[in-house]
Design a protein that fits this description.
The complex is a heterodimer of chains A (185) and B (343).
Chain A: H1 4-9, E1 11-23, E2 27-44, E3 52-68, E4 72-87, E5 91-105, E6 110-114, E7 117-120, E8 127-140, H2 141-145, E9 149-163, E10 166-184
Antiparallel strand pairs in A: 1-2, 1-10, 2-3, 3-4, 4-5, 5-8, 6-7, 8-9, 9-10
Chain B: H1 2-18, E1 26-33, E2 36-44, E3 50-55, H2 69-78, E4 80-84, E5 93-94, H3 103-121, E6 126-132, H4 134-145, E7 154-158, H5 164-185, H6 189-200, H7 210-226, H8 250-269, E8 283-288, H9 296-305, E9 311-316, H10 323-326, H11 328-342
Parallel strand pairs in B: 3-4, 3-6, 6-7, 7-8, 8-9
Antiparallel strand pairs in B: 1-2, 2-4, 2-5
Classes of the chains: A mainly beta (185), B alpha/beta (343).
Chain lengths: 185, 343
């Protein structure tokens, strides 16, 4: 195990993530991406010597997929910016925002009439932009076990536009694992 | 980590175990038209080549809300029922401007669905259009303002709402009549006196506001439930898909509500009584006697004013607003007789 000074002097900067994703809570999917820590600061609590709070700002580009049976599958490409605050015991909370786009693919056939003939639309689906607000709690295994792994649960709310004639909102959640393979000294 | 994997595994197994596949023959597809991808489910006896296209109520409901109970089982055993999620509702999605959220556009969508059914299942196929409640308004609009009558074998309007201003005026009269009757019989006197008469006595029938229309609509369901002659609605399952396989989700609910709000003003002022003479296809009108949502007088108007040579108007004496749920056997017998007569 690293002592406090060593922990403070280095931090994970780049990791690879894998998440289980559930649109609306029960439409299964996954995300994979990169976590890039571009800001790291350790703050000692004023009244409690030796107790630190670690603040990180993280950029996370990712690609994801989910399936809504009898409706559609969707690919999502997005980047999230999040602030993570980690306590001495390894627990952390996070808040973040993200933006990107999605391409849906209908998982049932799509027909249209062209010149009085019925034709099947290939790869039918729609492009739309997505934005999300993320909250989360998690655990940093580096703090106690010296494993460069973090695990978190993130409830999210998505804003997708266009959807029909305006926009739509939907909730989702992720269970995310990040393995950090690069550390900054 | 290992424990979490086990929990996730157990959760997945539960989800798989709970999912129930639909046993009936059904087909789902989208129809792309004017920016929308309209979700359609065809279910039942497809080999009959007789299709009943259901236009759901609302605005804000969805097609599969009509794939319920005994009535749909009976009709599906004879014919193919076509459950359409109208533009902006249910699983229908797409990308279009707000000016495409109109009654005329929804009527054109219905016309397009009929064309697709004919092309997909063969020109010998017979399509009947069936509209319930707000779907009665969309169906009537389609019959009047599109060429759909050239492609359908008949029109079934069940408790339809083809004239909302008249509906509101007639509803005031209907409430007054039944309030008097129920009070004289000693039935739920407080409700009829305070809630019903208290509400309608405030209403100027020459200027019924949206808030008053909404208030009457809300209390109408309570009123029909308090009439002793109205059957208890049968117990039914709303959707035969398990939750994890349902085509609907939170997005569907939100989007349906946005669409309902967008089309609400046009719906509230829609009045098609003066154009009913344009309807000439065989027509079956079925109303619940105690339908306080869309009074039977609207059905009588339709019967009197349409130009169809073959037309029937039936009032089911033990029904409220959804006759197919209150009296499913009588309802389906009427539909079956009508369909067989119209072929």
């Amino acid at each position: 195990m690293l002592d406090k000074k060593e922990q403070k002097s280095n931090y994970e900067v780049l990791g690879i993530s894998l998440s289980y994703f559930a649109e609306s809570g029960y439409h299964h999917g996954f995300f994979t991406g990169i976590d890039y820590v571009f800001f790291n600061k350790e703050k000692e609590k004023k009244k409690k010597e030796g107790k630190f709070k670690n603040h990180k700002f993280i950029l996370s580009p990712s690609i994801g997929w989910y399936s809504h049976p009898n409706n559609k599958m969707a690919l999502l490409f997005k980047a999230d910016l999040s602030h993570r605050m980690t306590f001495n015991n390894g627990l952390f909370g996070l808040i973040g925002i993200g933006t990107g786009f999605s391409r849906s693919f209908y998982n049932i056939p799509t027909y249209q009439i062209v010149d009085e003939e019925l034709t099947k639309v290939k790869l039918a689906g729609r492009f739309s932009s997505v934005s999300n607000l993320t909250f989360g709690i998690g655990y940093d295994f580096k703090k106690k076990l010296d494993i460069p792994l973090s695990m978190m649960i993130q409830p999210e709310i998505y804003f997708q536009t266009p959807y029909n004639f305006m926009y739509v909102l939907f909730p989702a959640w992720q269970m995310k694992f990040v393995y950090y393979f690069k550390t900054k000294y | 980590m290992q424990r979490i994997s086990i929990y996730i595994g157990i959760l997945c197994l539960i989800l798989i175990a709970c999912s129930k596949d639909k046993s009936e023959q059904y087909e789902r597809f989208y129809i792309r038209f004017d920016g929308a991808d309209l979700a359609v489910q065809v279910e039942g006896n497809i080999t009959s080549n007789i299709f009943i296209l259901v236009l759901h109520g609302g605005p804000g409901s969805n097609g599969l809300a009509y794939n319920i109970g005994k009535y749909s089982d009976i009709l599906e055993s004879e014919y193919a029922m076509v459950y359409l999620d109208q533009r902006g509702h249910g699983a229908s999605q797409g990308k279009y401007e707000k000016n495409k959220v109109t009654l005329l556009q929804l009527a054109k969508d219905a016309e397009e669905v009929v064309k697709v059914l004919k092309l997909k299942y063969g020109t010998q196929s017979k399509v009947f259009l069936m509209g319930h409640s707000w779907g009665g308004l969309i169906g009537t609009k389609a019959l009047i303002d599109t060429d759909i009558q050239n492609n359908i074998a008949g029109w079934i309007e069940a408790d339809g709402a083809h004239d909302i201003p008249k509906l509101n005026r007639d509803l005031v009269k209907m409430f007054r009549f039944y309030a008097k009757e129920q009070i004289s019989k000693g039935n739920n006197i407080d409700f009829w006196k305070i809630e019903i008469l208290g509400l309608i006595n405030e209403i100027d029938t020459n200027n019924i506001t949206y808030a008053q229309s909404l208030a009457m609509n809300k209390i109408a369901y309570k009123a029909e439930a308090l009439i002793p002659e109205v059957n208890k609605p049968e117990k039914y399952t709303v959707d035969k898909f398990s939750l994890s396989k349902s085509p609907y989700g939170i997005m569907s609910i939100i989007s349906s509500n946005f669409t309902a709000i967008a089309i609400n003003d046009e719906t509230e002022s829609a009045s098609l009584t003066d154009k009913l003479f344009k309807i000439h296809v065989p027509t079956l009108l079925i109303w619940g006697k105690y339908d306080f949502v869309t009074p039977p007088s609207l059905g009588q108007d339709a019967f009197d004013l349409i130009s169809s040579e073959v037309k029937y108007f039936h009032i089911l004496n033990n029904s409220g607003h959804s006759a197919m749920i209150y009296e499913p056997v009588k309802f389906t017998n009427l539909v079956k007789e009508f369909v067989e007569d119209s072929l």
